Recover the amino acids of this structure.
């Protein structure tokens, strides 16, 4: 039996604020001009990379609330997750906010997981204003999942570079901004890939499974979206997804792309591309939301993927399960002009999206 | 401003099935006669404790669905989390079920986090049937968070014993069973405790914060509940909570207790008591739900607590943030007699709650 994995939101919660903060390498990538804040140095003034990651989360949360023109007290709930053991970046950042908090773990799919859960809670009338946040840091991920940086290990061609960056957005029933209209909740899919340097291949089957479920449940086709974007399949993984979808009779065209594949420039030579929770989170909360606000994108199928393994599981010979959640975000066509006006009238907006800041 | 952290569910989702599986030591504790399944050996026939933990999860999920008299295909969504890095017990167990999956991380508060999120999703009409699951294993937790078992470290008097066990329940809008009427979403609270052998003290302020928010938001008092039960504050932590509440003018009486404190018998000499996600999860899904089904408890305030630290955070000198979510579960008074009848008429029920099995 094919069960419905997709929910349609009656009240279509809005993304009323967003913020992205990235590291120096990301600030030289393809989305450079869209980010709110580029750190000069990826330690962000802290004495450990873990503390820097936590500080990025705090920065992103505050930034998104400011971008929404809300007061800190207007927020009811924080939904966050990250890649670190016991999601410490999220929980330790949450300590500094006077908000109820739900910790999530969906690896690099966390941005979609938080949007899907957040939109569900708002749609049901249980909460008014929810902040979603996630991110990652190259140096914390590398030493936790792979090798100490000091070893200077060589990277195989399938490997991806964990994005140093955090993204956050504010969901609300009020205000204006792009609307979350549907969410497809993904299953855990494991096709037996066990190469921890080839995450794209491990996650592509999960992306396929969720994409098929989404098109089936909603009776849509790829042509119904201006942009279909996976999270961090990278160059190889996104090609695998295109093949897998074609095997299922669905041709993904030029409106399909992958955040990881697009992230860095060719000259940066980042092998298979970007990865990490921060990859899709910072692309969503900069480029994608900007285009949706301005009406340059009308309807986006945002589907970050996550690889759910741990070093312990890998050491015990387990393969890598993947997951992918999909969220449909649509342009709020009636209010498109407000975003053009907003740039010229609002100071708060200017200091973020308007005048991109270069960091400390 | 004191914001409302509590949601009241209009549709009052029901707990229609539950299951608990525990290790041999737990099977000799105070709740022995209530558990569905006691493992003879805590490796559960697997070659690693992590794999045993995952198998307990699978067992608990299947058991709860059977207990609800549902078919596997009736379930829409699985909500799960655990203590292991990247919550592998949950995600790897989820691999074996054809369900959409949301990974949660709330440390030992996960049972309440999953109930609160699950009840919210059902209440909003987005899902019909959701399975919530969590658990822990003494041997996986000990070697991940503290020391290799082989070291034979001495345990200080404040230390607690991670419960080996998993609990799962099925939430639904249909059927009969105890109803989830309210949930209070907790904040991350950190009072600077940094002794990883004194989790009770680290989590007690979070329990206080959520309990105060709950009584304030709902205009209830401790007298409105037959049972107020925290998750794993243990002997010391629950005394701290009683003191903290008294400082706030609220006296907790004999209807307050803590799952960790109650778990083991005096003769088992488990120092400050039980802990871990499995502690409150197995008590809820055995003793508490049993009493609620039979009408021997009418209204329970279930509030598991979690300590959100990781070894990396501790090594970097961070203190231990705590969190506590509260869920109100009420007896379905119209259907109390069905549980007495069910024991004598249903085979499925007999093989679980009726005739407790002794494991492989």
């Amino acid at each position: 039996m094919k069960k419905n994995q997709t929910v349609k939101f009656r009240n279509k919660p809005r993304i009323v604020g967003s913020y992205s903060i990235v590291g120096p390498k990301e600030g030289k990538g393809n989305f450079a001009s869209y980010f709110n804040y580029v750190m000069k140095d990826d330690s962000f003034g802290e004495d450990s990379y873990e503390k820097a990651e936590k500080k990025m989360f705090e920065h992103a949360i505050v930034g998104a609330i400011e971008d929404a023109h809300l007061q800190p007290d207007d927020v009811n709930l924080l939904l966050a997750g990250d890649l670190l053991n016991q999601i410490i970046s999220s929980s330790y950042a949450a300590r500094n906010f006077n908000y109820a908090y739900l910790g999530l773990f969906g690896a690099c799919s966390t941005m979609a997981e938080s949007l899907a859960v957040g939109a569900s809670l708002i749609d049901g009338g249980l909460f008014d204003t929810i902040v979603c946040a996630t991110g990652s840091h190259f140096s914390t991920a590398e030493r936790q999942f792979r090798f100490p940086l000091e070893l200077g290990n060589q990277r195989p061609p399938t490997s991806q570079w964990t994005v140093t960056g955090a993204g956050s957005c504010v969901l609300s029933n009020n205000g204006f901004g792009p609307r979350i209209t549907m969410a497809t909740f993904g299953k855990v899919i494991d096709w037996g890939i066990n190469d921890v340097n080839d995450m794209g291949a491990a996650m592509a089957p999960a992306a396929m499974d969720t994409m098929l479920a989404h098109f089936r449940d909603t009776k849509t086709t790829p042509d119904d979206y201006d942009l279909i974007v996976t999270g961090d399949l990278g160059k190889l993984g996104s090609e695998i997804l295109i093949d897998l979808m074609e095997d299922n009779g669905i041709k993904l065209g030029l409106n399909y792309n992958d955040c990881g594949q697009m992230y860095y420039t060719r000259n940066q030579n980042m092998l298979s591309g970007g990865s990490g929770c921060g990859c899709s989170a910072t692309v969503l909360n900069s480029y994608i939301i900007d285009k949706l606000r301005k009406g340059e994108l009308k309807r986006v199928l945002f589907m970050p993927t996550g690889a759910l393994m741990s070093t312990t599981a890998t050491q015990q010979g387990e393969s890598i399960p993947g997951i992918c959640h999909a969220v449909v975000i649509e342009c709020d066509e009636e209010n498109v002009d407000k975003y053009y006006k907003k740039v010229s009238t609002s100071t708060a907006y200017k200091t973020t999206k308007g005048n991109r800041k270069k960091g400390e």
Q: What stands out?
A: Chain A has one domain: 1-349. The two ends of chain A are 55 Å apart (CA to CA).
